[in-house]
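The methods section describes the discrete structure representation at length, but only in general terms. What matters is that the chain and its backbone geometry are given together, residue for residue. For illustration, here is how one protein appears when written out as sequence plus structure tokens:
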Amino acid sequence: INAEYMGIRKMSAKTAAVYSLLQAEKKAAEVVETAKKNRVMKIKQAKIDAESEIQKFRQKLQTKHEEFEKQQMQSGDQGTQAEIAKADRDVIDLQRTFQTRKDSVTDLIVKLVTKVEL
């Protein structure tokens, strides 16, 4: 009887160890899943924030350009027409620069936000 009891005890110790490992695995999977969900939420929020900043910047440039154009039109001078053309080119250059750097800035923000430390 004693030998049988020892066999059952060893079996339940093995079962307990397996159960403990399964529980640890389950908990680790939950932690990973939570981290993934948090990462996705941070990415979405970073994109929303980046788009908001882009819109503000675009509106600021547009307002500045319109004010300048209005001011120049009111003066009616031929020299101002050249300045308006130059300002238009400058705005276009700024918009190009903005478009080329937008993706890299967004990527940088996303990388910073998605860096998950466990």
